[in-house]
Design a protein that fits this description.
279 residues; alpha+beta; 2 domains; 9-stranded mixed sheet; 3 helices; 39% strand
């Protein structure tokens, strides 16, 4: 019985501290700043794949179970026109990459790696999501969709972007089968498929500002990178290479199970075992 009393204390303390269903935000780059919007979509008939990635740092092994990202849907498109969502995780080059690179882009230093090491998607049924309209009319000062290309030697990737874009500011909240990530530096890449138009991921302040969470001391907050199928396996910097603006972050957060959630789950299992032994 003393053990059951201890478990009861744990339960009460957790309930008083935070709701048992809460998750711990481990990464948050902050809210959109209205400066940049970049396409990020899977391939579909008539459209090549585009990936936009932004980085994050973990200081300890972490189980990522979900998060959010915020972007634009075209005006006139409804949430029912969202046909799929994918999130990918990349290491930082040169992990998972051909090294040395092929020198077809200005640099691969601090870029995402050639290929992802993990992904979750609605197609594979290991990701679920909800989408919420935050603002029915939101404008970003510049955008990058089709202007992703490099030419010449040394490579020149400047296109300037495609100018201002207005759409619906939508936040995607997603849950995934847990991805256990050791302490390291990573890139996060969300993609949204629409039945009409393109999803554009919105930029966030760089350096990170509240409600964002600053990078850990000693870690460098890298900028947003982008590529399409023609550029693959290479990536280019949205700010430094494509638009000569920025550099930019992108608006997203990642969450891990809140400690009390784990304690309560374990406590419940132990209590069940003790009860069975008592009977």
């Amino acid at each position: 019985m003393p053990r059951l009393r201890t478990l009861a204390y744990i339960f009460v303390l957790c309930i008083l501290a935070l709701p048992a269903y809460a998750d711990d935000i481990v990464v948050n780059t902050g809210s959109p700043d209205g400066l940049m919007a970049t396409a990020s979509r899977p391939s579909s008939p008539g459209k090549m794949e585009i990936e936009t990635g932004d980085d994050f740092v973990l200081t300890q092994t972490t189980n990522i179970v979900g998060g959010t990202f915020t972007g634009l849907l075209p005006l006139g498109v409804s949430l029912s026109d969202i046909t799929g969502v994918t999130v990918e995780f990349y290491h930082v080059f040169p992990v998972d990459s051909t090294n040395p690179p092929n020198n077809l882009v200005p640099t691969r230093v601090n870029s995402p790696s050639d290929m992802e090491f993990a992904d979750r998607s609605t197609t594979s049924s290991n990701l679920s999501f909800t989408a919420t309209v935050l603002n029915s009319n939101f404008t970003a000062a510049n955008s990058v969709v089709n202007g992703i290309a490099c030419s010449g030697s040394p490579p020149n990737c400047f296109t300037g972007g495609e100018g201002p874009v207005t759409g619906q500011e939508v936040q995607f909240s997603f849950l995934i089968d847990a991805e256990t990530l050791p302490a390291d530096h990573y890139f996060f890449v969300p993609q949204v498929e629409l039945s009409a138009g393109d999803f554009l991921w919105l930029s966030a302040p760089k350096p990170i500002a509240p409600p964002g969470i600053p990078f850990p001391p000693g870690a460098t907050d890298l900028q947003t990178w982008i590529r399409n199928s023609d550029l693959d396996p290479n990536w280019v910097r949205v700010g430094t290479d494509v638009t000569h603006q920025g550099p930019f972050n992108a608006s997203f957060s990642l969450v891990a199970p809140e400690p009390c959630t784990l304690l309560l789950t374990g406590a419940g299992l132990i209590a069940l075992i003790l009860k069975r032994r008592a009977t």
